[in-house]
Amino acid sequence: MAALFPFTTDEANAVLRALKTVAMADGMFAIKEQALLSASAELLGVDGGPDAATTLAPEELAAAVVDPERRLMALKACLVMGIVDGQVSPEEWRVLSAFRTALGIEENALQVFHGLVQGHRQRTQYELQRRLGSPQAGTLYAAQGWQGVLNFFTEDLLALPKTRENSELAWRYRRIGLLPEGTLGRELWRYYRERQFAFAGELGGVPEALVHHDITHILAGYDGDLQGELETLAFIAGLRGEDPASALFLVLLQHAVGVRVGDTDGLSFVPERILAAQERGRATGEDFTRRHDFWDVMDRPISELLQRFGVPPR
């Protein structure tokens, strides 16, 4: 299987070992860390499960990864591992700092990315909130009961702000279901209703910033599962001429924190499709993902918008 990141085999193995080192820094190998390590191994194109990787010293990582850009990519991946089960613990931060020093990376770069990870974590929490609030949460409930759900998601759910219904905003989204078939608004309405998600403005609804991300899924034509989320972020990275590595590791947060013990199917994906999505983003004419408001085009056919934005067919 093709690797999604430009590491050599030796570099990829070293990065995976670095991830294991961060995960084991506090003496515990949590379920979420195991899930993220398994997914990272597939992303890196490394064979073997979480138990196969051994820890390594900062000097070993520095010796294996020499290129400055790849070093930064490796450190970012390690930071994602540190935060996947909540806040970065003091022990994990000491390991991250040691890696940063050995790799010759400025402390500010680590702090800036830490802020980005925290921001994505908030979006992750909203995503978990609406998925757990829908009937699709039944799989985890059936397997472990509500106690199992709460034990696994407590830290995420308690961090969520309590929202009140904004009837005016909610009604604005409900009305898009009256638009003709094939329009952006009607497809967005269908996207939410099929998943039984609450609209922005409704009780338990998400911020409009997440609605914009859902619109990107719809226009780009990628599903909302792990495969589709990775493809969507790769598409956005290609569209913006950015390196998708950080975004791809970040989206693994969303799925690794929600994975159930033994749920290996939940973390399966096809790297070749993700790479194709990045190339498709590069070939797109206009970066519609930076739009702050889609209301002026809600009544337009999706086919017309794809032509307008210069989105190539899949």
Topology:
Layout: H1 9-23, H2 31-44, H3 58-64, H4 68-83, H5 90-103, H6 107-132, H7 138-158, H8 167-174, H9 184-195, H10 208-220, H11 226-240, H12 245-256, H13 271-282, H14 302-309
Organism: Nannocystis punicea
Protein name: Tellurite resistance protein TerB
What can you see in these coordinates?
With 314 residues, the protein is mainly α. It has 2 domains: 1-105, Orthogonal Bundle (TerB-like), CATH 1.10.3680; 162-314, no CATH class. 61% of the residues lie in helices and 0% in strands. It contains 14 helices and no strands. The chain has helices at 9-23, 31-44, 58-64, 68-83, 90-103, 107-132, 138-158, 167-174, 184-195, 208-220, 226-240, 245-256, 271-282, 302-309. α4 packs across α6 (107-132) and α11 packs parallel to α13. The longest helix has 26 residues, at 107-132. It comes from Nannocystis punicea. This is Tellurite resistance protein TerB.
Element order: H for helix, E for strand: HHHHHHHHHHHHHH
Helical stretch count? 14
Uncertain runs: 135-162, 260-264
Percentage of residues in helical conformation: 55-70%
Rg from C-alpha positions? 20 Å
- For the report, how would you describe the main beta sheet? none
Query: What best-fitting shape do the alpha-carbon axes yield?
Result: elongated
Domain count: 2
Termini Cα gap: 21 Å
Structural class by helix and strand composition: mainly alpha
Overall pLDDT level: 79
Q: Care to count the β-strands?
A: 0
Classify the beta-strand content into a percent band. Answer: under 5%
